[in-house]
Amino acid sequence: MLYLTPIGAVLATAIVGAIVFSLIGYDGIGAVREIFLTPLLNPLKWQDLAVKSAPLIIIAVGLSIGYRANVWNIGAEGQYVLGGLAATGVALLTRDFSGPWILPLMIVAGMLGGMAWAVVPAFLKTRLQVNEILTSLMLTYVAIQLLNYLVIGPWKDPMGFGFPQTRMFTADQMLPRIVPGTIVHLGAPIAIVVAIAAWFFMSRSVLGYQIKVVGAAPSAARYGGFSVNKTIWLALLTSGALAGLAGVLEAAGPFGRMVPSFPTNYGFTAIIVAFLGRLHPIGIIFAGLAMAVAVVGGEVAQTTIKLPVAAVGIFQAMMLFFLLASDVLVRYRVRLGTRRELEVAR
Amino acid sequence: MNPDLLIPIIITLVGASTPILIAGLGELVVEKSGVLNLGVEGMMLIGAVVAFAVTYTTGNHWLAILCAALAATAASMIFAFLTLTLSASQVATGLALTIFGTGFSALFGQAYTGKPIAIFDSVFPDELENHPFWRVVFDHSPLVFFSLFMVVAVWWFLNKSRAGLILRAVGENDFSAHSIGYSVIKVRYAAVAFGGAMAGIAGSCFPLLLTPQWAERLTAGRGWIALALVVFAAWRPFRLLAGAYLFGLVMTIEVYTKASGSMGLFPSEFWAALPYLATIIVLVLISLRRSGNSAAPACLGKPFMPGQ
Amino acid sequence: MPNRLELIGITKRFPGVLANDNVSFSVKPGEIHALLGENGAGKSTLVKMIYGIMQPDAGEIRWNGESVVVTNPKAARKLGVGMVFQHFSLFEAMTVLENIALGMDAKIPARELEAQIREVMQTYGLLLDPHRTVATLSVGERQRIEIVRALLLNPKLLIMDEPTSVLTPQEVEQLFTVLRQLASEGCSILYISHKLHEIKALCDNATILRGGKLVDTCDPRVETSRSMAEKMIGSNLRDIVKPAGRSFGDAKLVVTRLSTVKGGHFDVPVDGASFSVRAGEILGIAGVAGNGQNALLDALSGEIRSENRDAITLDGRGIGQMEPTERRRQGLCAVPEERNGHAAVGDFSLSENSVLTARDRMGMVGAGMIKSSVAKLYTGKVIADFAVKALGPASLAGSLSGGNLQKYIMGREILQRPSVLVVSQPTWGVDAGAAAAIHQALVDLAASGSAIVVISQDLDELRALCDTLAVINMGRLSPVRPAGDFTVEEIGLLMGGVHGGMEEIDAVPA
Question: Closest partner residue to A213 among C303, C356, C369, by Cβ?
């Protein structure tokens, strides 16, 4: 039941979406077909799916680790931006160099950048009990302004005709394409690796166990000898690092430079992905794909039936609404299930 | 300072501050009841597009504001149902609401792109509107006076009325409130509805006050600033008023700085980031001054589970 | 003159337990009537029915001679019954005035309410500034808010539920003055407590409950403490059932002047506790809940670290600064009072719960990874050895009944063969069968050479298990003596807070 509800949520969204869109004058069934099915059925679109789902998956995996610990990092978008900025900084510094060490350096820098942006919420939460939802959220907008400043100011490409953008990254600084003839870059397999590693980490390691205990029952965690504060730090820094990783991969992949339009809301959409995937890394892979389908489908629908791209947000939101609503059924079932266990046990 | 220069600044200032003040007042009441609704931006966008559509179709500004309020309230009820009745995560649901609102307004606004409407201008007699001195006070849209009136109304409600007392109690200690016999869920539903209405009205400020043309992302992130504002004001209505105008001033400086290249030492991006940085500082100050409790409603963001 | 309140044959049943069994007594106008009994004797349940929170399954309640049905607290208040609960429903961030206004049924304008409040405060000497925020008030002052709230309704019967458990002696003094004044004006008082010396000092009449049944109604001014304690606690203390020929080894656990820092407002810290436990010995620490037991357990388990490394020594090694995992490695295991949420995680399976405390001692971790097969095996053994009724190691802890979960938790710790085991309320809320199994397991563990500390409110349990006994009160520990040395009266008094003997009884004015 736990794993059927996300699928049910997607189906319900498709059905309700079709009805609603038909009612307001669009070709409802056509819209749903373009948004949900075309990306899956058209092989040309698969590369877009891979490219768009990778950052969602990476960020969502990081967020889910935090959420399991009851740490509500809402600032993934800002950490993602910092990741991209850190990578850009390294790229600009190493502009005149070449070699295979540059890209890994950028990746490390990106992860550190994302982590750095998570330090403030972590510190304020553990030391002063300041709500991390608010601090991480505020820092997101600070990050975006920092990005704007750098790109329009000190980091502007002197040969860019005055456009707000940095230089293009060199070949050594870009992510290699792993499927020739497509735009699928290294980010896609990295996303899968990250998800599987996280799954392994959370289900098998002591640290993963620690995170789950702290999230479920902090008193029990202390009793078990785990430090709640250290766990909060771990959770925030991990989600920050992964968001930063997504940032590097996007900057060095599809973007190839830093521009003001770099923040594409992946950080916020990833929150939905995390919930849709039930905070489970494998579920997140599928949820990330589902969201990417909606995004790619939205682009398709824009050309074919003139649907504005942002309207896709309605579908994404509906998926989450249906999932959250159906969670009630899951919880109800769980309660029934345990009652049955009790009766048998007696 | 040259009065000719001052007037446009004041008008810009008022225009920037009013929507966040209205949205902030709504969210303040919601948070005082213990609920965190991150969907303010989405509800504002819904309000904006509905206000625009109704104005374009009927030319009646009052009707437009009313419809905007109703539409946003309806959206807020989805949020309320999911979080209060089904106990879903307030954070996830609020974000979904924002994404929904963004999509909704993009979809419905598409038909109106590029089509102009009339601004909701002042309703005072022309002599006052154009008076060289008094126009500072009177040449403002009714929305502005509404915002100021609501500051007083919300303050009175929270501090002087019994209903406001109950609402604060619910946000402070939902378990005790429930034990005494108050319906926590009903109070929160009402608060969320009020927040929705105010967000809708705030959203209507954008087409009716500021930019009488439709464009996507019209509210440009003001919903998030409103959220920051509520915290910055430590959940107090008069501080919210001051904060709204302070933030509005900063936003005005940002606009002027951007337009004129650079003003003084700080780039426009610094001014844009300032409200958010200031909010973090305020959060730290509140926590430092705490003696066992904070200005934040203690139950903020936690679902109410009477069985547990 | 009819009785203010009369209970006739009140009976209340819950699944698995008969909370009140045919209880009858009466309270006259202006009488201060004590309701005396240990925890679980049925006092709270009885009073909840008088206040309308629950309905009796059988029996009759009479008010001023007339039969009534109290449907809910509002109806109770309308009759004239006021209640001051043990746990306050207060809003920290709001003022005294606002808190009282929230508790009122009717809407009264603030100014008028303030005037009424000041009048009540003046009349009864319950002085408070109505505009102060509750968070700044002491516990005694907070209780005054609750009392004023109740008095504003002009009650004819005031129920006080364990009112002095969190008060200083001076505050107790002040409270008694208020209650006596109320009684002299004709208001009856129902005073729930287990503190014998207070009841003797204050009350005209006392109804004693034990195990849901009425034992006696007597005059505390005339009765001896001993006879009241015996009625409250049960028969003679001297019959302890223990295997003969027990000998004890060296001191395993030595605690020297252990103190903790006050946690929150309502926390009772440990205040200079000293004791030692030998191999094979079971030491009992008796005391009513809320006297520092939790702080003591946390200080021993390692959740609270001590400043002095040697405040706690295990086999001579100072462990005071070690955290829980390290203490377990040294051989000290502990079981806190709260099952779900502290000793175990309800949302986790039993196997996962075993990892919580047993992972080090039972080899469930390697290279930072959890060996779930080892955990599963161990959990299976616990389930089998302790007859835990669960479907298997994968069962969710939260799905087990209280008794079974407790059996699992005790089994999880005992099968780790600790050299010292500290447990708090090991059989609270547990059915008789599971309790017996747990007791036997503890005795067996001691027999194999471990030192055991049992912190409990249940004197029957302590009598059955313990070789030596001490009493904890307000964080202070009485000297440890062989269990057989204690008289029932002594224990009762010590639990109620009288250390050192009779002098303190005289100190409480009549």
Answer: C356
